[in-house]
Amino acid sequence: MTSIGGETMGTTWHVLYAGHRDLRAAIEARLDALVAALSHWAPDSALSAFNRAPAGSWIALPPDLARVVDAGLRLAQASDGAFDPAIGVLVDAWGFGPPGACPEPDAPAIAAALARSGYHRLRWDGERLFQPGGVHLDLSGIAKGYAVDAVADLLADHGIRHCLVDIGGELSGRGMRPDGDPWWVDLEMPPGIALPPLRVALHQLAVATSGNYRRGEHTLDPRKGRPPDNGVVAVSVLASTAMLADALASAATVAWPDLSLLLDRDIAARVVIRDGDRVEEVLTPALRAMLDDDDLAAHAN
């Protein structure tokens, strides 16, 4: 089995695959292309070019950016804005974006940022995105997941059908391990949380975890313009693609205690909530159905 890794998107990547072909250069080239399309940190990216576009212009998006924008806008509508790919101005106002740290914004500053934010201000025809003026895309809640899928697809194009791809904790498992086992992974556990480990098999599945413990407080509720105050420490979501898992984990982190988006789609997920010294673990029915009796007993609410 081949194991390679490196750095991308401000985090690390790691790939395991059955075979001995050296695909590092191809993977790194694909990741570099994704940064050039999707990064809001790279001033010369296609995303940054859209953010700078004049008001009233229709911008043709390159394929990778178009796919992520299309998925992001669909999920924004389905989640009633709990996930929103168009809050770059708000992210910057809180000091979480490329301009860097700044004092916490007051109510007028938040209102001004919200006035320039929101998926509802965009129009999308499947190829071109309308820039109404001053709206900034920020795909940090979905781009890593898309990159995981893109690398797994690249490996498939090179005849690699059995692989585990990890970018910053978002993972996708294709096929099986060389020993015949599935790709077993433990759901991320935030530091200081004393819960039993939960291991899942990524057999044609992906998993993503959203939580502030990785990079500090950075999650914002796009509807209110502020960090959510709901006690959520982490949300892990299993889905058919890493992009979907990534975006749903981001949405559920904001939407809790409303899990209708996950339940309506029969999504397997774990939510970890802290209330003072008390920690609660909520497993959706779809995740419970994946566990054996011993796991269910260990994770009984």
Automatic annotation (TrEMBL):
Top enzyme class, one word, equals transferase
Query: Which GO molecular function annotation, any one, does this entry have?
Result: transferase activity
Q: Which cofactor does it need?
A: Mg(2+); Mn(2+)
Arranged from A to Z, the UniProt key words for this protein are: FAD, Flavoprotein, Lipoprotein, Magnesium, Metal-binding, Transferase
Residue numbers binding Mg(2+) = G141, D246, S250
Q: What is its EC number?
A: 2.7.1.180
- What SUPFAM superfamilies does the database record attribute to this sequence? ApbE-like
Bound cofactor: record note? Magnesium. Can also use manganese.
Q: Which reaction does it catalyse?
A: L-threonyl-[protein] + FAD = FMN-L-threonyl-[protein] + AMP + H(+)
Report the Gene3D superfamilies cross-referenced here. Answer: ApbE-like domains (3.10.520.10)
Q: Keyword Lipoprotein, does the record have it? A: yes
The text of the family note is: Belongs to the ApbE family.
Q: What is this protein called?
A: FAD:protein FMN transferase
Q: List the taxonomic lineage.
A: Bacteria, Pseudomonadati, Pseudomonadota, Alphaproteobacteria, Sphingomonadales
